[in-house]
Amino acid sequence: MSRALSRLRPRTSKSASKFAVFLSLVSLLAFTGCSSIRVKLGLRVAIAKLPVSSMDVTLPNNPGIAPGEQSPLVATFTQPDGKVLVTEGKGKGKVLWRDLVVTPSIVTVNKKGVLSLPHDPRKTDGKMAHVTVTVPSHPDLKAELDIPLRYDYAFSANFNGAAGSNGSDGINGTDGASGTPGSTDPNNPSAGGDGSSGSSGTNGSDGDPGGDAPNVQVQATLRAGSHPLLQFKVSAPGRKDHFYLVDPQGGSLTINANGGPGGSGGKGGKGGRGGSGGIGIPPGNSGSDGSNGMDGSDGPPGRAGAITVTYDPSVQPYLALIHTSNRGGPKPVFNEAPVAPLW
Length: 343
Known about the structure:
This protein has helices at 2-32, 35-40; strands at 54-58, 70-72, 74-78, 84-86, 101-105, 108-109, 114-116, 129-134, 142-147, 154-158, 216-223, 229-235, 242-246, 252-256, 307-311, 322-325, 333-336. By secondary structure, the protein is of the alpha/beta class. Among the domains are: 47-150, Immunoglobulin-like (Sandwich), CATH 2.60.40; 155-162 and 210-262 and 301-336, no CATH class.
């Protein structure tokens, strides 16, 4: 048995050492995200050190991008032997985006190859987004992609009230002190001291009320043409105006003016434990546990705002594409009246 144990110990120690190294590497990757370490581990590849014959770039989620939305790029590389390499991120490949250069037009791009289009359609209306991807280590490689702007999207105009702040948690009570020890000697006994009681936890504070939503005004008109589009302007006092361009063929707009949710009440503090009675003959009594504090109450929600939609007569066939949400507030009002082009 002892020989068997001695044979097992080195293996166990060696396995533990390997596991510790593995955990260290995982922790290092998690906290630093160092690309060079990922390359050394084989989790990523350095495209500069590899032969590549061609490159292509695509938008896998959708051929276009809507205002205010993001869409990831995927670059694909083909090597002379036919092997295919793909970029990290959406492509779930090993090629690092830092080794590529993406030059965007109309859209912007982050360090992970994710494109973004501004929320305001007036900045990009009638334009075509475009990206050019190059590889500094392979000057002969270049891929270009036109990105159409799409408006067949479920847009949302959020004018909800702010959420209330959460209440603070109560403070835990302190534990009582243990009683002083007495004597357990039968010939010279003495009583143990009583433990002191734990103190009570304090109450959690109440959550703050949610903020009220403002009253919202919506203007809607139709931009006629071979492919008609709906123009919207959504405004409220003290808020920045929002503009939307919506394709009636698949698009919609939801206007939200709900009161903000109330903050959660804080948790009551836990009562401290009573101190143990001291040993002795007889032993001391243990102290009583402190009472738990009461939880704070949740704050009430804010009030919903009123929503008024003024739409041009040309929009009437598309009213079903306009949705509203102001729970507990007045019924939204729809008024038909001439509305000029909004931009």
